[in-house]
Specification:
With 288 residues, the protein is mainly beta. It contains no helices and 25 strands. A hairpin with a 4-residue loop joins strand 14 and strand 15.
Length: 288
């Protein structure tokens, strides 16, 4: 019969064997199994002196069996960072305190970032476990549900968790109306000397209030796309905090331009826009 034995090289390996835990087991014709918990490097030896066979030895590396999030999925508000913790578990579900491997940190979000500190932020994509535990912080500037992943490719270990990032989601729609014909829509037919009323609607479809929003409209006054116009009026409904205009796309002048002025753009500033709220601004121009 062949006798199997094991010897630890590094780490601590806690064996769990059927029959004996002395580190030796006699084969009964079926493939013997050695299982246990803890990270280590061990040498497994096989010998059968009765058969005159030379002994054989093989070095094995025993690592954690799985990575597991021990923090619940977080929900981020106001661009704060979310904290996460991951543990390395052995085959028996216990924390593998000898697991100190480097792991990769990744996210499905194109703008998500990781750091080991939220006071002195330093972007990282790799980190090292300490005694079977890793804690870090995640920051994202894109609303949605990013999936963050911690992985150790060499050991075939990975774990993922879906988080929630609440951010404002800006949505802008625009329409126009020919005040002479009454035609309205995304685009309407106009003739020279007719007045068009434009309505620009700004909506917040996200889960967080938008603050200090600045809305521009320079496309309407782009004569390479639209007919040349002159300014007629701007509607002051109190929906915005300030507005301004420009004649050269460089300097902006607060307030409204004088009627019949040729301008290149309008700008509105909103101090805030709440969740699921919409504000509309209107202005009129006359086709030359």
């Amino acid at each position: 019969k062949t006798t199997l034995s094991w010897t630890g090289i590094s780490g601590i390996y806690r064996p769990r064997m059927s029959g004996t835990c002395s580190g030796r087991e006699r084969s009964t014709g079926r493939a013997p199994q050695l299982s246990g918990s803890g990270s280590a490097r061990i040498v497994i030896s096989a010998e059968n002196p009765d058969a005159g066979l030379l002994p054989a030895a093989q070095t094995e590396t025993i690592s954690a069996a799985s990575l597991e999030f021990i923090t619940l999925p977080f929900e981020m508000f106001n661009r704060e960072s979310g904290v996460f913790s991951v543990t390395a578990a052995d085959y028996w579900g216990e924390t593998d305190v000898l697991f100190n491997d480097m792991v990769c940190l990744s996210t499905s979000s194109p703008v998500g970032r990781f750091s080991l500190s939220n006071t002195v932020w330093q972007d990282i994509t790799i980190a090292r476990f300490s005694s079977g535990l890793l804690s870090g912080y995640y920051l994202d500037h894109k609303g949605g549900n990013p999936v963050i992943t911690v992985s150790q490719p060499d050991a075939g270990l990975f774990v993922s968790q879906t988080e929630t990032v609440n951010m404002p989601v800006m949505f802008i729609t625009a329409g126009q109306k020919n005040l002479k014909t009454g035609a309205a829509g995304d685009f309407v037919a106009v003739d020279s000397d007719e007045t068009i009323e434009y309505t620009v609607m700004l909506s917040n479809l996200g889960m967080e209030t938008m603050t200090n929003v600045i809305l521009f409209d320079t496309q309407v006054f782009n004569t390479s796309t639209f007919s040349p116009t002159v300014f007629v009026s701007i509607e002051d409904t109190g929906v915005c905090d300030t507005w301004a205009w420009t004649a050269d796309l460089v300097s902006w002048i607060a307030g409204s331009p004088a009627p019949e002025t040729s301008i290149r753009g309008l700008r509105w500033q909103f101090s805030s826009l709440g969740i699921n709220k919409t504000k509309a601004v209107r202005f009129r121009v006359r086709v030359k």
